[in-house]
Design a protein that fits this description.
- By secondary structure, this protein is mostly helical.
- Helix content is about 65%, strand content about 0%.
- The protein contains three helices and no strands.
- The longest helix is centred in the first third of the chain and has 25 residues.
- The termini are far apart.
- The relative contact order is 0.05.
- The model has no long low-confidence stretch (mean pLDDT about 75).
């Protein structure tokens, strides 16, 4: 079986058409995503440097952990 030269047999037009169609589809998807992608303004987050509030929150979390420990009990025997 002999491989034909695509330039001589005229098949090069099909290869170029396939390549161009793939590029056009990629460009259309890029344009569609840029048009429908709404970028919202994101508010800048400001962190409090006040350490007294952080310490009180840790105390509250410890109290919650103590309540949760009494609520659940592990089984004596494992299965």
């Amino acid at each position: 079986m002999k491989i034909e030269n695509p330039f001589e047999s005229g098949h090069i037009k099909n290869y170029i058409l396939a390549y161009v169609s793939v590029v056009v589809i990629m460009v259309l998807f890029f344009v569609a995503t840029t048009l429908f992608n709404d970028i919202k303004d994101v508010d800048k987050k400001v962190f409090d440097c006040n350490t007294t509030q952080v310490q009180t929150q840790k105390k509250v979390m410890k109290n919650i952990d103590e309540v949760n420990e009494t609520r659940f009990r592990l089984m004596d025997k494992r299965y």
